[in-house]
Amino acid sequence: MTAKELSETPEKVVTAVKMLYFLIAIGVIRTSMTVIRHADVRSPYFLIFIKLAVYALALFIIYKISKGKNWARWLLLVVVTIAFPLSILPIFDSIAHNPFDTLLGFLQLALYIVAMVFLFHKSASSWFSVR
Amino acid sequence: MMTTFLGRILSLHASLPVFVGLVIFVTSTAWGDDAGTNKEIRVFIDRQTLIALENGEEVYNFDIVTGQDGKETTAGRYHIFRKHEKYTSKTYGSEMPYTMFFTEDGKAIHGTQMATLRSYLHSYLSESVGSQGCVGLTDDNAMALFEWAPVGTPVIVMSEEKDKEK
């Protein structure tokens, strides 16, 4: 890889970062749907507080990834690895009674996998290693 | 005249069982969901899961969180006797959406915060993250179960550990 190539953000990283921002948007939609569904019986403040904290942290990590921080890439990998089994079973739970939410949930998981593959692609790894 | 009168009385007596049978049939079918279908909820404390059965077929299979140490959800056979879509615990002041009470001492199936995460932690790490004795589900799952289960639905709470003690 040339010095010029290493100075430019690889296409795979750019795409992965865009996908990660899109994932946050899907998450906001799913949270909003949950809040609306249960608005009559539960105050939404706790859920909104937790989700805002999670999204703020996620945005920070994605921003650092876009700037080439290798630790942020690995931190995201650890978080996704832990969150994956915790997310996939509840998604199956909701197939019977909330198929749209299930669809969005599967879309999120699929995009996370693709984004992580892009972030750990050879060209991306070379770029992260020199920054 | 007399024979006609007696004949009518005898005829009424003869048709009485048919009439009673008809009343029982009509009332049993009129209750529909409550009495006509075979619904059942089974709670597995050790696995931290709940299944809902209808005519022996599994309808739902949800992660749950049950009672923490000292406030265990007690194994046994119960039934849902009261439902509240919106409810606040009188003891703890916490929100209990889609509540279905199944014990007289206040244990219920209801929606709870972070149910899935607590369910896994309860299963694999520590029972201290459990509930105050109720069966907690995610709000979405609690809503689905609330709409599915009528008052009178049997709730069978099972614990392998308790069975071993016996």
Binned, the helix content of chain B reads 25-40%
* Percent strand of chain A: under 5%
Report the sheet with the most strands of chain B, covering strand number, pairing sense and barrel closure: 5 strands, mixed
Largest interface: A-B, 19 and 22 residues
List keywords for this structure.
heterodimer, A: 131 residues, mainly alpha, 6 helices, 82% helix, elongated, B: 166 residues, alpha+beta, L,D-transpeptidase catalytic domain-like, 2 domains, five-stranded mixed β-sheet, four-stranded mixed β-sheet, 5 helices, 9 strands, 36% helix, 25% strand, globular
What is this structure's SSE topology?
The complex is a heterodimer of chains A (131) and B (166).
Chain A: H1 3-7, H2 11-37, H3 45-66, H4 70-93, H5 99-119, H6 122-129
Chain B: H1 2-30, H2 33-36, E1 39-44, E2 49-54, E3 57-63, E4 76-79, E5 82-84, E6 99-101, E7 108-111, H3 115-124, E8 135-137, H4 139-148, E9 154-158, H5 160-165
Parallel strand pairs in B: 1-9, 7-8
Antiparallel strand pairs in B: 1-2, 2-3, 4-9, 5-6, 6-7
Task: Tell me what you see in this structure.
The complex is a heterodimer of chains A (131) and B (166). Chain A has 131 residues and is mainly alpha-helical. Chain A is built from six helices and no strands. In chain A, α3 (45-66) packs antiparallel against α4 (70-93) and α4 packs antiparallel against α5. The longest helix of chain A has 27 residues, at 11-37. Chain A starts with a helix and ends with a helix. The mean pLDDT of chain A is 89. By secondary structure, chain B is α+β, with helices and mostly antiparallel strands. Chain B folds into two domains: 2-30; 38-165, L,D-transpeptidase catalytic domain-like. Chain B has helices spanning 2-30, 33-36, 115-124, 139-148, 160-165, and strands spanning 39-44, 49-54, 57-63, 76-79, 82-84, 99-101, 108-111, 135-137, 154-158. Chain B has a five-stranded mixed beta sheet. Chain B has a four-stranded mixed beta sheet with strand order 5-6-7-8, covered by helices on one side. In chain B, β6 and β7 (108-111) form a beta hairpin. The longest helix of chain B is centred in the N-terminal third of the chain and has 29 residues, at 2-30. Chain B is globular, with a radius of gyration of 22 Å. Residues 22-36 of chain B have low confidence and may be disordered. At the A-B interface, α3 and α4 of A face β3, α3 and α4 of B.
